[in-house]
Amino acid sequence: MKAYLEINLKIDAADRPKAAEVYTRYKAPFLDTIKGATSKELLIRDEDVQVLHGFSSAAEASAYLTSPLFGNDVVAGLKPFLKADPDVRIYSVA
């Protein structure tokens, strides 16, 4: 089974380049070290920024949210730019 972790972030346009640096810095470690990780994409809209993570399973997507890479690195790096709590969703592919 395949799954996606979608994280929507409210980030001001002026702060998006710095937030994109956080995405770029941790993309390779995510793909290289997180169990079941298959892809990571940064999607930008006028109203928000979305990071779409691909996984082999929903359980692996959920486990990533409690990993040190996510909590200690990604969240800490993005925190100064967030205007609201992230909207986090996990989807299983039918």
Q: In short, what is this structure?
A:
By secondary structure, the protein is α+β, with helices and mostly antiparallel strands.
What is the share of helical residues?
25-40%
Number of helices: 3
Structural class: alpha+beta
Give the strand content. Answer: 25-35%
Shape, principal axes of CA atoms: globular
Measure the end-to-end span: 8 Å
N-to-C order of helices and strands: EHEEHHE
Spatial strand order of the main sheet: 2-3-1-4
The averaged pLDDT comes out at 95
- Largest sheet: number of strands, sense, barrel closure: 4 strands, antiparallel
Rounded to the nearest angstrom, the radius of gyration is 13 Å
Overview of this protein structure:
By secondary structure, the chain is an alpha+beta fold. Helices cover 38% and strands 30% of the residues. It is built from three helices and four strands, in the order βαββααβ. The protein has helices spanning 16-33, 58-64, 68-78; strands at residues 3-9, 37-44, 49-55, 87-92. It has a four-stranded antiparallel β-sheet. A hairpin with a 4-residue loop joins strand 2 and strand 3 (49-55). Helix 1 packs antiparallel against helix 3 (68-78). It is globular and about 40 Å long. The termini are close together.
Give the topology, please.
Elements: E1 3-9, H1 16-33, E2 37-44, E3 49-55, H2 58-64, H3 68-78, E4 87-92
Antiparallel strand pairs: 1-3, 1-4, 2-3
Question: Which key features would you list for this structure?
Answer:
single chain; 94 residues; alpha+beta; 3 helices; 38% helix; 30% strand; globular
